[in-house]
Amino acid sequence: MSSNSDIIKKQITLQAPLNRVWKALTDYKEFGAWFGVNLQSPFVAGEKTVGQITIPGYDHIVMEVEVHEIQPETLFSFYWHPYAIDPGCDYSQEKPTLVEFQLKETAEGTLLTVIESGFDAIPAVRRDEAFRMNDKGWTGQIKNIETYLNESIQT
């Protein structure tokens, strides 16, 4: 059973076609452009990709994700270690959280739902901060993808 502190859920209706939002999420270069990471390889189910974060203040972080599922134009998900910002800490022994991007076509555009779950399995010493920072982070990231898509549609 999950608690309110186990799951982050954010939604936004994007004024872009479903296939365009899908590409922005699953093309590793486009993902990197709006997310703020320079990924080294494409997203492939069951495989890991890594990249340097490009956001000022966080550019010392290397992001690593393991792609879980890719269901075309419906669901893209990966595992990662949330708020893993201390370069001196080995997060590999922690259970990662699952990040899901769910897409649904609507009359207004494309509904994007971002769900990150599994915070209750993070060690108590960093659980609250990881949840708080990722909650704030996903609020910013859904705005980033909206801005990215709006700019790419206009060009």
Report a brief summary of the structure.
With 155 residues, this protein is α+β, with helices and mostly antiparallel strands. It has helices at residues 18-26, 28-35, 124-154; strands at residues 7-14, 37-39, 48-53, 62-71, 75-80, 97-106, 109-117.
Task: Give an account of the 3D structure.
The chain has 155 residues and is of the alpha+beta class. It starts with 6 loop residues before the first strand and ends with a helix. Helix 1 packs across helix 2. It contains 3 helices and 7 strands; from the N terminus they run E-H-H-E-E-E-E-E-E-H. It has a 7-stranded antiparallel sheet. It has a single domain, classed as 2-Layer Sandwich (Alpha-D-Glucose-1,6-Bisphosphate, Chain A, domain 4), CATH 3.30.530.
For the structure shown, list the relevant keywords:
155 residues, alpha+beta, Alpha-D-Glucose-1,6-Bisphosphate, Chain A, domain 4, 7-stranded antiparallel β-sheet
- Strand arrangement, major sheet: 1-7-6-5-4-3-2
Spatial extent as radius of gyration: 15 Å
Shape: globular
What's the CATH topology label?
A: Alpha-D-Glucose-1,6-Bisphosphate, Chain A, domain 4
- How far apart the termini lie comes to 46 Å
Question: What is the chains' assembly state?
Answer: single chain
CATH C-level category: Alpha Beta
The CATH superfamily appears as START domain
Question: What is the domain tally?
Answer: 1
Class from secondary-structure proportions: alpha+beta
Largest sheet: 7 strands, antiparallel
Number of H- or I-type helical stretches: 3
Q: What is the ordering of alpha helices and beta strands?
A: EHHEEEEEEH
CATH architectural grouping = 2-Layer Sandwich
Please tally the β strands and state the result: 7
Mean pLDDT: 94
Helicity level: 25-40%
Strand content: 25-35%
